[in-house]
Amino acid sequence: MKMTLWLRTQTGTQREIRIKRETWTIKRVYGRIGYQTF
Asked: What superkingdom does the record give (predicted)?
């Protein structure tokens, strides 16, 4: 039971890290293009 909980936590954290990284990349790319597009 403890192992499945740990795995679930690990996958959740990995997903959060990936989402954060993607969001950061998108922000950086759009920042480089310029904010006039928005």
From this structure: Bacteria
Q: Could you tell me the residue ranges of all domains in the chain?
A: 2-33
pTM over 0.70: no
Expressed in percent and rounded to 5, the helix, strand and coil fractions of the chain are: 90, 0, 10
Q: How far apart are CA 2 and CA 6, in angstroms?
A: 6
Closest to 26 (Cα-Cα) out of 12, 38, 13: 38
- The tokens for 15 are 């997903």
The two structure tokens encoding residue 19: 């989402």
